[in-house]
Write a structure and sequence with these properties.
Layout (H helix, E strand, L loop, with lengths): L2 H23 L7 H5 L3 H11 L5 H8 L3 H13 L3 H5 L1 H5 L12 E9 L4 E10 L10 H30 L2 E2 L3 H14 L8 H15 L5 H18 L10
Antiparallel strand pairs: 1-2, 2-3
Length: 246
């Protein structure tokens, strides 16, 4: 992104977070942090539209040490009532005054895995290292906002291409569950041959990998799935093959 635009956008978020805090501080019902986190973007936008004429925008920019373009941008958003720019960074606004985390978050990685009945799969992976965040710090607000945008990106892929388009042009065959079981079995056989000090961590990595691809399904959920399969089979007259119970 262009550095000037980035500075404007980061400055706009800082202004919006400041005004959000100002709004909450003036309302006794929003004194509790939990109440502030529950405020909707629509409520804040309504307040902002009413408050905008009384805000000294350029003075506020100087106070917060942000570019004047940031103030002009927020002013345009306030007068237009356009919710989209606010919604895109809403977690950063609500959590703007939360102190930086004590433990440095290195990255956030969101994985969406689409799997079809014919065995084809499409992994949609979105990776955010802290080096892409302002000041190279993944705060609560920045992390939540970025994850929100990444989820929107995954949804956008489905909206743009459709499930059939994703299947035909983006998915691949991974050989089915048997191949996965063979791979997991091979890794389980290899682990005991490796450094004993590493083995507990290797098992954790294996469970992590398995959780992404084949998450464990609780017995009650398995029972619900089998019940649905039986209802579908009864309605269609075709007995389903395969599944956990077969």
């Amino acid at each position: 992104m262009d550095p000037e635009k980035q500075a404007r956008d980061d400055g706009a978020v800082k202004i919006l977070a400041h005004l959000f805090t100002q709004m909450c501080d003036a309302d006794p019902e929003l004194a509790d942090p939990a109440a502030r986190r529950a405020v909707s973007a629509a409520y804040f936008m309504g307040w902002l539209q009413k408050a905008a004429p009384d805000v000294g925008w350029f003075g506020l920019c100087a106070e917060l040490e942000v570019p004047e373009e940031a103030g002009a941008f927020v002013q345009r958003v306030a007068y237009s009532g356009n919710m989209q720019p606010v919604m895109a960074v809403w977690p950063r606004i609500v959590l703007g005054n939360v102190p930086p985390p004590k433990h440095t978050l290195a990255s956030a990685h969101l994985v969406c895995l689409l799997e079809w009945e014919d065995g084809r799969m499409l992994p949609i992976s979105m990776f955010l290292p802290r080096w892409f965040a302002p000041d190279a710090t993944l705060t609560d607000g920045i992390t939540a906002a970025m994850l929100n945008q990444q989820i929107a990106g995954a949804v956008g892929t489905i909206v743009e291409r459709g499930l059939d388009g994703c299947h035909e042009h983006m998915s691949d065959s991974f050989g089915g569950e048997r191949v996965f079981d063979v791979l997991m079995g091979a890794m389980l056989k290899v682990i005991p041959q490796l450094d004993p000090a590493l083995q507990p961590y290797l098992h954790k990595w294996l469970r992590l990998f398995q959780g992404f691809v084949r998450p464990p399904v609780p017995p009650e959920v398995k029972a619900q799935i089998e019940a649905v399969k039986r209802r579908v089979a009864a309605a269609s007259g075709v007995h389903p093959r395969g599944g956990w119970g077969e």
